[in-house]
């Protein structure tokens, strides 16, 4: 199933039969990966991918690995502050009423979507600023630049957080770097 907004395919929902005991929810995840290869144009404007067996449902982004697909667990935090307001095994219904409520879906896109660019903003940031004047520019980089013609801080602002190689080694996220 495809969710369209102004003619653009913004979400792809892959559904499996909940009464089929052999149905594998993660086969749906692999099917979405197949779409990425076989029909990439479908996913160019994509915001969300959903996999569900009709009862349980997971949502993730186009580039998310399996472990990054998660349950959407609320309809409206103001009205239903507790997770799973419709009860156990009603994930899909909760997601549809919560995340895919039109105003909330638009707010999600406006507030939480990142646009994963290839460094072109460093070369010419003005078109990005002109096209998205209210957007917050945030860079995730392992190699911040600081040269006369390209400067990460000049384009994206001051650092919000720094996770350096020493911290990564202490956390076990990377192995020590040996220089020869």
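Q: What amino acid sequence fits the structure above?
A:
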């Amino acid at each position: 199933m495809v969710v369209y907004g102004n003619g653009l395919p913004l979400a792809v929902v892959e559904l499996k039969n909940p009464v089929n005991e052999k149905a594998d929810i993660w086969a749906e995840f692999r099917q979405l990966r197949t779409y990425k290869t076989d029909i990439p144009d479908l996913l160019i404007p994509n915001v969300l991918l959903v996999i569900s067996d009709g009862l349980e449902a997971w949502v993730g982004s186009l580039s998310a690995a399996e472990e990054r697909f998660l349950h959407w667990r609320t309809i409206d935090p103001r009205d239903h502050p507790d997770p799973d307001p419709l009860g156990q095994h009603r994930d899909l219904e909760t997601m549809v009423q919560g995340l895919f409520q039109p105003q909330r879906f638009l707010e999600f896109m406006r507030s939480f979507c990142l646009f994963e660019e290839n460094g072109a903003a460093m070369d010419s940031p003005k078109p990005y600023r002109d096209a998205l004047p209210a957007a917050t520019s945030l860079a995730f980089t392992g190699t911040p630049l600081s040269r006369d013609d390209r400067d990460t801080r000049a384009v994206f602002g001051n650092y919000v957080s720094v996770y350096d190689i020493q911290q990564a080694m202490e956390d076990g996220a990377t192995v020590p770097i040996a220089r020869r």
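Q: And what stands out in the fold?
A: Residues 25-38 form the longest helix (14 residues).
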